[in-house]
Automatic annotation (TrEMBL):
Name by which UniProt lists this protein: Endosome-associated-trafficking regulator 1
Residue runs in coiled coils: 19-92
Entry keywords, A to Z: Coiled coil
Species name: Chionis minor
GO cellular component, as recorded: centrosome; ciliary basal body; early endosome; midbody; recycling endosome
Family statement: Belongs to the ENTR1 family.
BP term (GO), one: positive regulation of protein localization to cilium
Length: 160
């Protein structure tokens, strides 16, 4: 009976030691699980902040593109007006050559003014077109970034 009690006590001690090691492992795993939860929450917050930043940039670029488009439309209208003026000046120039009204100097001055206006419109149009192209490239970059964010979140979900 004493031997059996000693054997049982030995088994109890072994079971207590085993139980303590299992409890330690459990506590370590719980800590690791909590750390992983915190890490995942931080990553989710970082990703959300990045998405918000990208959305703000997209809105800003959209505003710039709209402004550039409006500017281009305005410049096209101005260009059309200047072309009408140029046509009128050419008609007036032809009339002067055939011996009618105003002097050649006035026609030359009007033609020079029309030329300067056309060059100004041309310069402004080029600038607006460059802005439109730049805005389109920026929008493409944002679209590519948003696609990659979707891929990152798909990989994260698959990785779990």
């Amino acid at each position: 009976l004493k031997e059996e009690n000693a054997s049982l006590r030995s088994k109890i001690n072994k079971l207590q030691i085993f139980s303590e090691t299992q409890a330690d492992k459990l506590r370590k795993l719980e800590r690791k699980l909590e750390e992983n939860k915190i890490k995942e929450e931080k990553e989710a917050q970082d990703l959300e902040a990045m998405v918000q930043h990208v959305e703000q940039n997209l809105q800003l670029m959209t505003k710039r593109a709209v402004k550039a488009e409006n500017n281009a439309t305005k410049l096209k209208q101005e260009n059309a007006l200047l072309q009408v003026q140029l046509k009128n000046y050419k008609t007036e120039n032809e009339a002067l050559r055939s011996g009618q009204s105003a002097s050649l100097a006035a026609v030359k001055q009007n033609a020079d003014l029309a030329l300067r206006n056309l060059l100004t419109v041309l310069t402004n149009s080029r600038s607006s077109i460059k802005q439109l192209v730049s805005g389109a490239e920026s929008l493409q970059l944002v679209a590519d970034l948003l696609k990659s964010i979707d891929r990152i979140s798909e990989v994260s979900e698959d990785g779990q």
